[in-house]
Amino acid sequence: MFASKSGGYFARHFAELSEPGRNPPRLSKGKLMSMTWKKAFGLIAASAVALSMSACGGGAGGNSASGKTEDVSLSVWAPQEDQADGNSWLAKMEESFEKAHPEYKITWKNDVVSEGDAKTKVETDPTAAADVYMFANDQLGGLLDAEAIGELGENEAKQVKEQNEASMVDSVTGTDGKIYGVPFTSNTWFMYYNSKKFSADDVKSLDTMLEKGKVSFPLDNSWFIQSFYTKGAGLTFFGDKGNDAAKGITFADGDAAATAVTKYLVGLANNPNFMDDAEGSGLGALKAGDTDVVFSGTWDAASVKEALGDGYAAAKLPTYKLDGKDVQMEAFAGSKAVAYNPHAKNAKAAAQFAAFLGSTEAQKAHYEMRGIVPTDKSLADSITDDDFAAKAQLEVISEASILQPTISAMGSWWDPAQAFGKGILNKEITEATAEAQTQKWSEQLAKMVG
Fold first, then answer.
1. Fewest CB atoms less than 10 Å from the CB: which of 149, 170, 185, 376?
2. Residues 70-123: pLDDT tens digits?
3. Alpha carbon of 357 to those of 52, 66, 398, 435: distances in Å?
4. Where are its TM segments located (predicted)?
5. Residue 27 belongs to some domain of the structure
């Protein structure tokens, strides 16, 4: 898991991002020229690596036509769980990579650095960072600013596009339109439910579930509340790709459509079969039998399975009825990915190995050995029948999600959205005040971004 349901997550998550509108430090002319030339050289070097990779077919496997073997050293950062011993996933993948690339005689140096810590460690000194590392995609902007992540070559970029849904490709695409990482798992949320209470058809509709059982949902959590507004009111974050701050956060269908969604949520909060899942209270209620539904991610799979026993089940997000029409709920989605360091001594081999760790073979092994849900579309049939959480996550990524933007302007969403959800729960926002309050929220979001 690299996202938490608590509101505190977002404060920590975005504290690292630069604030919109902050003035950069003033530099002397000499220092500015030095920094400019340094950045230019770094960009030229990174571009040269990407170009050579494209020309050499970096992602296509070994090429030892000359019969010579090249001594190569590669340093790799990965989570502890991936390298616990010689039979762990990382060791197996390194062994497989060596077989696929007999042109290399590789010396490996593995260290423990989790995806969530990658940016902080890399930024300390990009030239001393690992040649290959894993990162959470919300760190992409910072890694690009540090010139510590390499652009993928043509073959690797093609691999990423062929393997993944568009949202996963976008999750590792910079504002320049270039691809900088190889996704290997997604991050999003879905629905767990008690199959002894609901049928497979029942869980397609939130309203049906509310008629037949108890439903919990974190309405005052800004990582969840947008799920009603994206399809219901055309809520859009920073343009089609989620990376154009100038386009802001808008209700494309207008404030009237957004007000209709707000009124639905007011009714939801007042429904006796609904409970707000505040700070994980939904899971506790599930264990106690006080709710039949929780919305969460794979990180809670074991706990939910323990709570529900034989009734354990999961599904993609349901629809809800708005003005007589079924509207699909949509979750935020992101990814974890593998990157190579453009400062690596053996950048070509590093980029090839990064692509290999995100390959179909590696993702399949990652799932079989650690239960890491793959992003590779071709592996959907490899998910075991009883892995309901993995199947639900894949369905959400494919059919019911939007990319969570990673640009700093996204920081303007979290607190106002959380406050709006709280306003609904504490009845500050009612059927009578929904229009005025929704318009006020819309204007607030526009001002904060603009």
1. 170
2. 999 999 999 999 998 889 999 999 999 999 999 999 999 999 999 999 999 999
3. 20, 26, 22, 50
4. none
5. no
Q: Is 54 within a domain?
A: yes
Number of domains in the chain: 2
- List Cα–Cα distances, 398 to 375, 377, 402, 403, in angstroms: 10, 9, 10, 11
Which residues share a beta bridge with 315?
A: 191
Cα–Cα distance measured from residue 380 to residue 130, given in angstroms and rounded to the nearest whole number: 31
CA distance 429 to 431: 7
Q: Is residue 275 part of a domain?
A: yes
Q: What is the mean pLDDT of the chain?
A: 88
How much is the pLDDT for 241? 85
Whether 434 maps to a domain, the answer reads yes
Contact predicate 224/295, CB 8 Å:
yes
Helix (H, G, I), strand (E, B) or coil at 445: helix
The pTM of this model reads 0.79
* pLDDT score of 86: 85
**pLDDT value of position 407:** 86
